[in-house]
Specification:
The chain is of the alpha+beta class and 183 residues long. It has four helices and seven strands, in the order E-H-H-H-E-E-E-E-E-E-H. The strands form two sheets. It has a four-stranded antiparallel β-sheet with strand order 1-2-3-4, covered by helices on one side. A three-stranded antiparallel β-sheet has the order 5-6-7, with helices on one face. A hairpin with a 2-residue loop joins strand 3 and strand 4. Helix 1 packs across helix 2 (46-55) and helix 1 (16-44) runs antiparallel to helix 3. The longest helix is centred in the N-terminal third of the chain and has 29 residues, at 16-44.
Length: 183
């Protein structure tokens, strides 16, 4: 965190069992794919299966693509396990770091934290409502074209896969906001 974001005092990570489940599922997928390919090769013979692949290049390309996709999924799952999402709390605000983005939010910009279940989701998510004057009146959701894509009534959300669950993270964030937010 930079100096204007305060000193990191607490880090909350993605629940490890969820990332391990992702790794295990992707490894099982690779084992099944290569197991089926090995089983077919053992039935027709290894040389004959190579000859069949050479005779039908489309099948070889599709098989190779599916195999590479499964291996890439394993690599991505392992990467996400060791570099999981983090929520870093400081006295000035909190930083959300995900592989796709990072964002710092000041405590003074948050009106309150809430837990809500998206209309198309299975798990509750943690999110917050901005103060009315934050972000210049919260112009992001004043666009009527974006109202149909909202899945919750939260102004912003940070997801559901945090250690301790959405409710516990929401309580922690609300306590920090009350302690350091000044409102």
């Amino acid at each position: 965190m930079s100096d204007d974001e305060g000193v990191a005092l607490l880090v909350i990570r993605t629940a490890r069992w969820r990332t391990l489940a992702s790794v295990a599922t992707s490894v099982i997928g690779v084992v099944v794919i290569f197991g089926v390919l090995g089983w077919v090769a053992s039935i027709v013979g290894f040389q004959r299966s190579l000859t069949m692949m050479a005779a039908d290049p489309f099948s070889a390309v599709v098989t190779g693509f599916i195999s590479l996709l499964a291996l890439a999924l394993v690599g991505h799952s392992v990467y996400r396990h060791f570099r999981s999402d983090t929520l870093t709390l400081s006295d000035k605000g909190f930083r959300i770091r995900m592989p796709e983005r990072a964002r710092f939010v000041r405590w003074s910009d948050v009106k309150r934290f809430r837990v809500e279940r998206p209309k198309d989701g299975m798990y509750s998510v943690v999110g917050w409502d901005h103060h009315d004057d934050a972000l210049g009146g919260n112009p992001v959701w004043q666009n009527p074209n974006l109202e149909d894509v909202r899945k919750t009534t939260l102004d912003a959300e940070i997801g559901c896969d945090w250690e301790g669950g959405a409710e516990a993270v929401c309580v922690t964030l609300e306590q920090w906001r009350e302690r350091y937010g000044g409102s």
